[in-house]
Each structure stands twice: as structure tokens, then as C-alpha cells.
Amino acid sequence: MGRRSQFCWEFQVAARLAMSPRTLQRRLRDEGTSWREELESLRRRRVDRLLRETTLSVDSIAARVGFTDSRALRRAIHRWYGHGPAAIRASGPS
Predict the structure, then answer these.
(1) What does the pLDDT read at residue 53?
(2) Computed from CA positions of residues 69, 71, 76, 81, in that sequence, does the dihedral angle turn out positive or negative?
(3) Of 12, 13, 23, 62, whose CB is crowded by the most CB atoms within 10 A?
(4) What is the pLDDT, as a whole number, of residue 6?
(5) Helical axes 21-30 vs 35-53, angle rounded to 10°
(6) How far is CA 80 from CA 5, 47, 71, 73, 77, in A?
(7) Residue 28 and residue 93: Cα distance in Å, rounded?
(8) Residues with Cβ < 8 Å from 76, sequence gap 6 or more?
(9) What is the dihedral sign for C-alpha 30, 5, 47, 78?
(10) How far is CA 72 from CA 22, 23, 43, 81, in A?
């Protein structure tokens, strides 16, 4: 997901919370997090669940979770877990 797309989601979430994107950023910072960190956490949880509980391909999971392609997803999985998606899937449901 590109910066422009992230901003669009951030703007929509802020609007639903009846605040400006800048106020949302400030409130997240006050809580010790950021929009990017929250998005990363959400993606990680979704990827983990989809790998463990479905037989969807890595390409399909990448598209569903908002990665540009399966390569970007594989890099993220390596960053999060230190190994590839096959190891996550082999470990079974959490």
C-alpha cells in the first residue's frame, strides 16, 4: 500500500472519529504509536490468521491484506518472524 493510499485510509478513519488526520496522528503519538505501526500490526495479525487458517496462496493473501505483491508480503513476513510463510503455515492454527 503506497503512502497516498495510507493517507486516504488515515483520512477516512479520522473522519469517522470526527477529528482531523493531524489530531488522529497526535492522539496516536500520545498513546506511543503511529498510524504506520497500527497498520503494520493489523496486517501482521491478518496475515498470520490467513496463513494458519486458510489455504489461500501467498499472492491472494498479499492482495487481501494490501501489499503491492507477494514479494513485498514475503519480505514483511521475514521481517516479522525471521522465516518465510511456509513455516508459519506449517505451524498450524494459533
Answers:
(1) 94
(2) positive
(3) 62
(4) 56
(5) 80
(6) 22, 11, 14, 10, 5
(7) 31
(8) 43, 44, 47, 67
(9) negative
(10) 28, 30, 12, 14
- Using one digit for the tens of pLDDT, what is the confidence trace for 20-77? 999 999 999 999 999 999 999 999 999 999 999 999 999 999 999 999 999 999 999 9
Sign, Cα dihedral of 43, 46, 52, 57: negative
- The whole-angstrom separation of Cα 42 and Cα 91 is 20
Residues with Cβ within 8 Å of 84's Cβ and at least 6 positions away in sequence, in order, are 74, 77, 78
